[in-house]
Amino acid sequence: MSLLDKNIGIIGGGIGGLASAIFFAKFGSRVTIFEKASEISEVGAGIQISANGINILSKLGVYPDYLEEVCFPDSILFKDYKAGKPIIEIKHNQDIDFPYVQLHRADLVDALVSRAKDLGVKIILGSNAIAIKTDLNGSKIKSNSNIYNFDLTVAADGMNSGVRQYWFGQSAALFMDQVAWRALIPSDGNNIEPTVFMGINKHLVMYPIRNGELINIIGVQSNKNIVPENWNNEGSPEKFCNEFSDFSPSVNRILSKIKTVKLWGLYSHPPLKSWSNDNVVLLGDAAHPILPFMAQGSCMALEDAAVLTSVLNDTNNINNALKKYEKIRKKRVTDIQKISSKNGKAFHLSNLILRKLFQLNLRLIAKVYPSFLNKRFNWIYRYKV
Ligand SMILES: Cc1cc2nc3c(=O)[nH]c(=O)nc-3n(C[C@H](O)[C@H](O)[C@H](O)COP(=O)(O)OP(=O)(O)OC[C@H]3O[C@@H](n4cnc5c(N)ncnc54)[C@H](O)[C@@H]3O)c2cc1C
Known about the structure:
The chain has helices at residues 15-26, 51-59, 105-118, 162-167, 237-243, 249-255, 297-314, 318-347, 352-368, 372-376, 378-381, and strands at residues 7-11, 30-34, 46-49, 75-80, 86-91, 101-104, 122-124, 129-135, 138-143, 146-150, 152-155, 174-186, 195-198, 202-209, 214-222, 234-235, 261-268, 276-277, 280-282. The protein is of the alpha/beta class.
């Protein structure tokens, strides 16, 4: 199926939906995005995009042309939460064709929207959409009270995908008993190194964004009380500081500068038997939830978009193409899901002996074989779609 002149509907204008829209448009398709929110925006948080994701952003024509204010970290430092002493510094590989980048989410989303609009993608805002019919000839999307016909519908409607629940028989995503506090503060000229502070049942990540003008702070902790996955969920800065008050004084000094914070529940959903149903296909968090402990969820949505569009463009049979997309992506995202949840456990070790052993192990690696961890993650960062 050459994608030239195909009519494609995309539900969801997040990173996955926008990236797919751009690829479809580049292949000559007519593309409409349906986005529930009244404007496409990402507020108040940073994001890390590793070399594999930047590779895709460059194929989209978004990086570097549409992205200006990014940071290029050399490494990430791991510290103990209390003493604040470095345990290991993992250098980002400098010999990959693409850099590791930290940026403001809003800048990334704005860049994707601008690129999509420049390629003629139509974006319908305030549109709560659902695929209402699908067969091998096409699919229909109902948005508000209008019905639209498409050759193919891509559901990139996120963790709580309505399409996944409607067409793939799954219930809503499950709360993972963990929450993320997310805040930005001005750096006031201070140079902050990207750092992970590993605590007991919680950890904290800090890194600079916007050319170093802002510091992005994420604190993740175990929490049994259900918190929605929702940007509008304001948290209390005082409570955030209190929850992390056992961290080192230097961390506490930084946390005390927070004026506003969002509290975000972490969710997941069980693996699906299939990612497509006739001419409706899932992508990004809608297809495969990834916990944020490897900073790969958006990178995987970007890779999905590249693979989906290229197999569709190369194959005559749409159904075979969708199966091929799933086959190419499933093993990789499953491996990344596993390593992300392993990291989550390692960052939160509460057993004193296990914590000491884990940190000793990392210190040993730092001394004896510092490039070990870079090599271990080569399969993630050097991957080329
Ligand atoms: C704390 C935290 C930190 C993270 N950090 C990183 C990181 O550093 N690097 C990284 O790569 N990943 C990171 N991630 C993961 C990343 O944010 C997600 O994996 C990524 O945003 C998924 O993109 P998506 O397009 O699939 O879904 P989403 O970004 O959720 O987009 C879905 C879109 O669909 C819209 N929508 C939903 N329902 C409908 C409907 N019925 N009709 C129309 N529109 C609809 C929504 O409004 C939304 O705009 C992090 C996640 C968390 C929680």
